[in-house]
Amino acid sequence: MASKPLTGTKVFLMLVAFFGLVIGVNVTMMKLAIATLPGTDVDSPYAAGLTYEHEISAAQDQAARKWKVNAHIERRNDGGASVQVEARDAGGQPISGLKFGGRLERPTDKRADLAVELSEAGSGLYRGNAASVAPGQWDLVIEGEARGTRVFMSRNRVILN
Asked: With 70 as the cut, is the pLDDT of residue 39 above it?
């Protein structure tokens, strides 16, 4: 059995094939990573930076109100979730007439975020439901507004089973 000699052309073709494969896999993985970007907090850090001072002012105004807002979320057996928010002012009186909204945000994948519509169910009590909530970690974001201005915002990490 005669073996063929290893020539310079064969070595060159093997090197080109090897590095071509490595570069092809790297380019494919890079394109997939750039196309998905699920872990970003904001779409535009520049735009978020422009609103930073406004967010600080809104947080200071919220702290000065000394409201006590308690949120409770529970995942149901059908896969949905119930959200209940109770809002009280600094004196402990229920706060009525606000428009509360909520979001369930996946910390690792922005594409899985769910909106939760909350409606007033009683004096200072707001309730809403979300359908098809997967178990695991979520951020529950509650925002309340009065006369078109956001007056309350909270973000809490929750684990739903």
From this structure: no
Cα gap 56→73, rounded to integer Å: 27
Nearby residues of 118 by Cβ (< 8 Å), 6 or more positions away: 83, 85, 100, 101, 102, 126, 127, 128, 142
Q: Which amino acid is at 100?
A: F
How far is 70 from 22, CA to CA, in rounded Å?
53
Strand partners, 74: 82
- Three-state SS for the chain is CCCCCCCHHHHHHHHHHHHHHHHHHHHHHHHHHHHHCCCCCCCCHHHHHHCHHHHHHHHHHHHHHCCEEEEEEEECCCCCEEEEEEEECCCCCECCCCEEEEEEECCCCHHHCEEEEEEEEECCEEEEEECCCCCEEEEEEEEEEECCEEEEEEEEEEEEC
**CA-to-CA distance for 96 and 125, rounded, in angstroms?**
8
pTM (predicted TM-score): 0.70
Q: What is the pLDDT of residue 2?
A: 74
User: From CA 114, how far away is CA 116, in angstroms rounded?
Assistant: 7
CA distance 71 to 138: 14
Radius of gyration, alpha carbons of the chain: 26
